[in-house]
Design a protein that fits this description.
homotetramer; 344 residues; alpha/beta; Alpha-Beta Plaits; TIM Barrel; 2 domains; 9-stranded parallel sheet; 4-stranded antiparallel sheet; 11 helices; 15 strands
């Protein structure tokens, strides 16, 4: 860390800063410039947050140099991590296509949608049994009954399944049914839930929070990794912005931004990011071209009757067309959609 | 709700929309204009979200007319609600000054800070025992030991206490010690936690999420009210923005904005909103002048040794000066800081 | 337009609203619902802004239905417009690659960079002679001397050129040298400058403002079109956001979002959008995959000596590699980079 | 400035960086830490932007230490600057109340509004003759005819006037009529216009851009000051955000934030910041309590017939009530509204 000292700091203040730095177990390295004194703080920065040094009188800025995450960093693991969900691989050139309805509604809808997305080439089936809804009066999900339906339909079509968990008390229950746990955007900094998921042996799909920076996202992944669970897949799903013609703003640059500093796979969810089916195909193609390890899309056979987020779902035939495009694109870029029936 | 129909929608599509509206229990009211057809959807809008109608082919826009919250609205309760925390009143001209360190650290620090803020005129004591930290390697709070210290010190100085809860599994424990439960910004849409707090008999301090709109905040309050707990105090604490010289952007207009449509008290937290002690006094004065029902400030006797958020804390003497200003201002506006020893 | 009437509006107020709507030349269409009255306002909405109706007492919301732009809309021109810059075509499957240094610095640098980008396959040469700089003490551009260098080098390599204009008084001068005028992000709502460029016969590259919505961008294009200049190319170059690891946030979804409602070509500038050379290749590929009509990239043979924006420039060999990728991608998507030597 | 070197930088790269720093006229100061090398760059930072150093291979971060503005800084001028508009003073405890309609429409409207705001205690009269409008089809202002009306009415009521200039070619014309030039939010980074206004002898009211940081605002003020014009008044008028219930988000903390580092007066415009008359009084009170040097409010006697921004205007009687509140508040804070008839 580097401390920039106020121009009007007294010598006594500077001495106090130096001693405080030593007390915290660091080695101070003082440079006096024409207009400013700066103090290099040598040692393991993750032990102390920059803010605590900022509170010492006379300190004007405390600039961190090292990244605050370790286990998620490229320094910790140089190669691209590959996460297995069932036999489907995500990362290292293997693409995931996670598709399904927003919420599990009935066995029939789930079965119909699964049949279509399987035929199109999706390799993981999604559906929410516990739904985070802005309104307490909106449909809150089917709970365990939904989990059972999702499991049955996943097995019928030989697709591993992913479903969201919202409450630490649901983690055990959800783990009995699912192949992968989803942590939603609203829970990206629900730290107790992150820890609980970090203690399971299920891969975790961690969605970026609506106002989370890329660094925040990686710090939340670090919470899961620090508990011993190494199988984390990140998901860019748009952030809040002033643009009012889309539901969120898809930060596509987050894909190479994450890949430059972190070994975990990252996929893109254009359904939540845009909230508009007319933009989903272009954003899915862009995600694959940007280097994402997969795409997460909501598909519904009758969006107008969907109990949640109907208007952002693709119809089955639109999904089919899109998958054709994505396969061509993946091929041109030497990547491929993974399959659940492949041998190791 | 109003449905705007696409200019190229067929008659069959319009008929289908009208039938679907009826199926959902609404009365459709069709107006054909020169360039557009619009359909008024008459009935209780809170039963259906606009998005589900937006998914019907031929619908271009679905515009909600009614507010999506009920119990929190001025229509439900015309006057200003007054929430009691101990004997301290918040709302209806009664101001809260919630002060204390970010985290409970030791009995000694808590005792020292409490003595000072009590002397300055704070009426509620705060301190975190469970801390939401961006990094898994940062101090996570003292847990139950911290709750005990906070309770003891609150009793010693005759101040009701408020402390944060992060996990539904902690709610019972926290309620055994605290007078008011705080729900932090990161948990504003932790819906299971909202419900759990809604089932207690403790007043709840609900902080606005970092990217929550005012409507989102009121919807989260509605979650608590809908479970039967009427004692909710809202808190504006800044939202994420591009401005990088402050920690967040304090949306001061949220105060009159909330008051115009909601009967619940709202206070302002300039400590988290700005992250800068040099801005806290001006923002506290502005909050009172804007009509807020109180202020929430972090105070620490030695910010450089604080285990959390030290640099945004006021020193005791700064707090004392500020309280003098705020009392004069409150008087000029015919309001007053409530006391814990006053008779009903 | 639709007016939503306040629930407490009096009959006299409603009558007044109806009369005011008639006065403005519209036909009112009143629907009384259970809880609200709504008034459809039939007629040409572009004559009156919704806000003026919102100011009538008793009106709660004024909801526009029609798009506020005409000449830029798909309704006005169904097909994709193709803009010619020299003989290079932009739009309708023809891709532009606009490349060059941020600022024109010397003949030598311009010549070197032009040689490289031409060899790589760029079809339009860029360079700034008038530079908008945040600081008055930073390099402000070479002015007319820079225009001459850019013209000479463009001619030498048979590349049409584009350069920025910042002041209506410079438009004539710049038009004497350039093939295309660039309007920068900071001037997207410099309406006098838009009008001035609309009166020239040069194609205009209009960059999105840092906090402009897609609708704002199209309204600014409308300013140019309304003056008679039909050759407008839009450019997404990132918007301001809370994410602090990139210079701006590239709103990739703006590409299909614009294309759905507007016939003009749109290109993407990943240099300014990200400010990071390590992210430019991925974002360029994503732009082409998303359907953009071209890419705008800064290239410099010695970024550390660049007088402006050096750190966001690609090196010549990086540019060469990227062009290889983009050509493969374009081919897979049935599109191609246009050339300046092709016959009509 | 401080350069943080990449952990994998070679010795040759570090040597090259050191030489490049010297070439640029700075003294390098190298510190080798356990995991990182940092290089202090000693000298006048305003000569080189951090970005140019960032482009040197091996440099990971370039951290500026000094503020990039000089003439606007507290270091340059310790006391609070007082700007005179006519005989009205702004700053140093003297408050401005700038009021009037959004646009000059007719002599009658201007006269009526001026009579009311003068009676209420406004000390500067505003009205736009050149209007920046998002749509080319909206009312663009009366031009010189509007300037004449504003001048006549200002003289009649003995109020200095302020009006907006949008184009460098209008500056001379506007200066012939007005007492103060307004630079609107959309032109905050119209650098040629800033320079042109900096060459006049009229005080300038500089509004913050919709996505400008506080630092950006001060850099734009620096453009005017650097041309020799010392009379700049800053204006916070809200920035773009995701909150959709107000027109912009009023960044009230900008007031003390500016005052801490800059000697220029700063006022607040709650009309544009909120776009809602119901929020203007609370935000005006808050502005005065936060330490602003004045308030800028739109007032119209018949908002529903206003040609621009009617719905955000106060009615004359609302303005009168508000002024009563503000005077009481100012008195409690030892400040006062300045008058045009006072002796120096």
């Amino acid at each position: 860390m580097i401390l920039v000292i106020r121009p009007d700091a007294s010598l006594a203040q500077i001495e106090h800063i130096v001693e405080r730095v030593k007390e915290l177990g660091y080695t101070p390295h003082v440079s006096r410039g024409e207009s400013r004194t700066i103090i290099g703080v040598i040692g393991d920065e993750t032990k102390t947050s920059p803010e605590s040094l900022l509170a010492i009188p006379g300190v004007e800025q405390a600039l961190p140099i090292m990244k605050p995450f370790k286990l998620a960093s490229r320094e910790f693991s140089k190669g691209d991590s590959v996460v297995h969900v069932g036999k489907v691989r995500i990362g290292g050139g293997n693409l995931a296509m996670i598709a399904g309805p927003c919420a599990v509604e009935t066995y029939e809808v789930m079965d119909t949608v699964a049949k279509y997305v399987k035929a199109g080439g999706a390799n993981i089936l999604r559906g929410g049994a516990f739904k985070p809804r802005t309104s307490p009066y909106a449909f809150q999900g089917m709970g365990e009954d939904g989990l059972k339906i999702l499991r049955d339909v996943g097995d019928k079509y030989d697709m591993p399944i992913v479903t969201e968990v919202m409450d630490p008390r649901q983690v055990d229950l959800v783990c009995r049914y699912t192949d992968m746990i989803q942590l939603g955007a609203r829970n990206m900094q629900n730290f107790d839930l992150l820890k609980e998921c970090g203690r399971t042996n299920k891969p975790v799909l961690l969605k970026r929070g609506m106002s989370a920076t890329v660094k925040d996202l990686l710090m939340s992944a670090e919470y899961i990794l620090a508990e011993g669970n190494k199988d984390v897949v990140l998901c860019e799903r748009g952030v809040r912005s002033f643009e009012d013609s889309t539901r969120n703003m898809l930060d596509m640059a987050a894909v190479p931004n994450v890949k430059g500093q972190c070994h975990l796979p990252i996929i893109v969810d254009p359904s939540h990011a845009t909230g508009r089916p007319d933009l989903i195909p272009a954003m899915s193609r862009a995600a694959v071209a940007a280097g994402a390890d997969g795409v997460h899309i909501e598909v519904h056979n009758c969006p107008e009757k969907a109990l949640s987020d109907g208007p952002q779902a693709l119809l089955p035939h639109q999904f089919l067309d899109l998958m054709g495009d994505l396969r061509r694109l993946a091929e041109a870029l030497n990547r491929r959609f993974s399959r659940n029936d492949e041998e190791e």
